[in-house]
Amino acid sequence: MKARDIAAAIEDLAPLELAYEWDGCGISIGNPDAEVNHVLVALTLSRAALDRALAVGAHMIVTHHPAIFKSLKYLRTDDPATALVVDVATHGLVAYAAHTNYDIAPNGLNTVLGERFALRDMQPLLPTPHTRVFKLVCFVPDSHLAMVRDAVAHAGAGVIGNYTHCTFSSPGIGTFVPGDAATPYSGSKHALNEEEERRFEVRVPQSRLRKVIAALLAVHPYEEPAYDIVPLHDTETSIGLGVRGKLPEPVTLRTAAQMVREQLAVEDVRVVGPLEGIVHSVGVIGGAGGGEIRIVPHDIDLLITGDVRYHDALAALDAGMAVIDATHDGLEKWAVPALTGYLRRTLPGLAVTPFEDVATFYTV
Ligand SMILES: [Zn+2]
User: Is 264 helix (H, G, I), strand (E, B) or coil?
Assistant: First the structure.
């Protein structure tokens, strides 16, 4: 298969449209049309990850962190960071990253972490203003209404809460005059035709818009299907950064910290808040969530995240919220087995090697 097929499979799970604008997701190095039958999955595109990819004969490296994060001004090989980019390219490898799109995706990294902590009733923690919702309106002959409805629903349109296939249609009359070069599905050339149609409406999240339009065009019988895409005021409430949910039962912060340490297989965690205080509702942000402490809803008892600085901890104490800092990579290293499992399930013909990075920080 091609590198772009593997990218498309990952983006089915974590659409690129979910990524923040400043991010660097997708294929960043190499040829999207390169043949790939072996992928290395790593948290970060490090020198060690490249060495492992070459050793196992992988043609593509899939990471959580983008290989190129800030725009480069040069590609000098005496700078270790740019030398790595040059080496990936000269070995003909493809580098791919699923970063904030994978953080935000409904079954992405934060859901994986929430499941590790056995959270119940998981919901998004923070709204993401860029996950807009659109209304797709199109005009379909009655004979094709069911086919169009099924196609767009299958592509991700029409989901409201626990309901799928949420659509509306009303009858009406469409008009058209086919030109010389037209091959109309119905009606006569050079005459004003009237056609009984349905006005079909459905909500589409931005992240699924491209797929939904493609699905519509694939099954719509007309040569020139008419459709409108109308931006709505609301954002997608089923999607957000981080997850929140309830632990199976209320426990002390000390017990919660031990559970986190065991579930993440990290040597230690840092805890902010009264150790014997009771926690039940929990928020999780993989990676650098310390900076989000001021904006997470403070009705949660505990935030589990990484990269918590002193002043972040003070802000949490002020808000009456406990924090467990399980380290940035202690949380995000779980992207590697999760993406490995996903690729193996989705693309059975692909060889997938997980690269379990050695820890970045050690406790001594
Ligand atoms: Zn990270």
Answer: helix
